[in-house]
């Protein structure tokens, strides 16, 4: 039986994007199975009293002009600073939460690419509709989607998450896109 990892993420998080693009390789190398669990990062921050890392201007400048472009080059993925940041990802996160777990990775990667790769504003209804498709976009307004996203967010908080991306294996937290190699090493040595 393969090891199980829960991946808590929000499309608005650039480091969630950089973690997401590493997960297929992690599964391939370790045989582990990653379950993608969308959360609403704004709701998580509000609930636990955390703040986005952008409150410090020098950190914000470094993050967007140096760190993220450098990491995108390293992982060989596109990076374009989004038209609007942060944007409201509530609709897309609800839609992802309403989908079966097996459908989340492919659509999430597409959404990450639109927002962080191409810089499109997923908070705009027409962009979200085009990205999600009418059927999936319609899910976002259903009560089941709202409840699912709230539940995933509450679950992440109850397990100790304080931001995104958070990966959890055997109740151990691996926070950030730069901790996946540590998770891989731990999986391979277990």
Automatic annotation (TrEMBL):
This is 2-hydroxychromene-2-carboxylate isomerase. The keyword Isomerase applies. Pfam families: DSBA. It catalyses: 2-hydroxychromene-2-carboxylate = (3E)-4-(2-hydroxyphenyl)-2-oxobut-3-enoate. Signal peptide: none annotated. It comes from Marinospirillum celere. Residues 5-187 form the DSBA-like thioredoxin domain. Keywords: Isomerase. Belongs to the GST superfamily. NadH family. GO terms for biological process: glutathione metabolic process; naphthalene catabolic process. Its EC number is 5.99.1.4. The active site is at residue 13. CDD domains: DsbA_HCCA_Iso. GO terms for molecular function: 2-hydroxychromene-2-carboxylate isomerase activity; glutathione peroxidase activity; glutathione transferase activity.
